[in-house]
Design a protein that fits this description.
0% strand; mainly alpha
Length: 85
Amino acid sequence: MKSVNEKYQTVIEKNTFYFFNPVFEEKYEDYLNSIKETLLVLKNEIENEGLKKVQFERLIGEKENGLRALLALTGFSNDRHTNQI
């Protein structure tokens, strides 16, 4: 088994360090679940009502993470587009 000094040396040499932050991980998981749920609701609306412009207007205008969900769905970067709004 490696000593603590050997482990530190590995981190310094190989730049491989993983810091586990449970609070951040929980918040980020909640954020991702929010995006997923937003997209599932949109999917269900489209399946039930057909594709309508008003669904996207509501998604962007009323949902907290609506724009981010739409950008994730289309594969666009969030940082590039939020600065333009």
